[in-house]
Amino acid sequence: MNTIAVINIARSQLGMEEDTLRALYVRVTGINSLRAMTERQRLAIVEELKRLGFRVTSGGRKLPASTKPYIRLIHALWKSCHRLGVVSDGSRQALRNFCRGCLFPGNETIAVDPDTLDYGKASKVIDALKAMEKRGKAAR
Asked: What's the mean per-residue pLDDT of the chain?
């Protein structure tokens, strides 16, 4: 985390003047300059700004949907399996691990991103996910 950037964002979000902010620096750390502070002192400033009402929000970046229909199908099946309770972790990382297990069983060193699969490899993953989804629907 770039604490200097977070502090500057908090300053603008809270509408603080420069002299008010420097007074806060001195009150919390005893130093009136961000550059002279250690990382721990900057984190203390961030915590104080949070106490004063600063809210940290995420960047909100989302990955674009793939143009390949078989890749979108993999993601849709994964979400469906998660909703059905067949898959306990519906995250992208868990999907990557599942794809690696389908394509390279027993090999933990290979990284497999489902968005980069060709049709041949993706069809193996799709077949496995369809079977899981079918079992999940039958269990309901």
From this structure: 90
Say if residues 129 and 77 touch (Cβ distance below 8 Å).
yes
Q: How many CA within 13 A on the CB side of residue 83?
A: 9
Task: Please compute, for residue 72, the number of CA atoms within 13 A of its CA located in the half-sphere on the CB side.
Answer: 6
Distance of CA 50 to the CA centre of its chain: 21
Tokens (6 digits) for 73: 């199908």
In Å, what is the CA distance from 93 to each residue of 75, 88, 134? 12, 12, 23
According to DSSP, residue 74 is labeled H
Instruction: Compute the distance between CA of residue 35 and CA of residue 103 in angstroms, rounded to an integer.
Output: 49
What is the reported pTM?
A: 0.56
Residue 140 pLDDT: 76
Residue 90 tokens read as 């519906």
Helix (H) or strand (E) segment spanning residue 63: none
Q: Which residues contact 94 (CB under 8 A, 6 or more apart)?
A: 87
What is the number of other CB atoms lying within 10 angstroms of the CB of residue 28?
Answer: 17
Q: How confident is the model at residue 64 (pLDDT cuts 50, 70, 90)?
A: confident
Sequence letter at residue 139: A
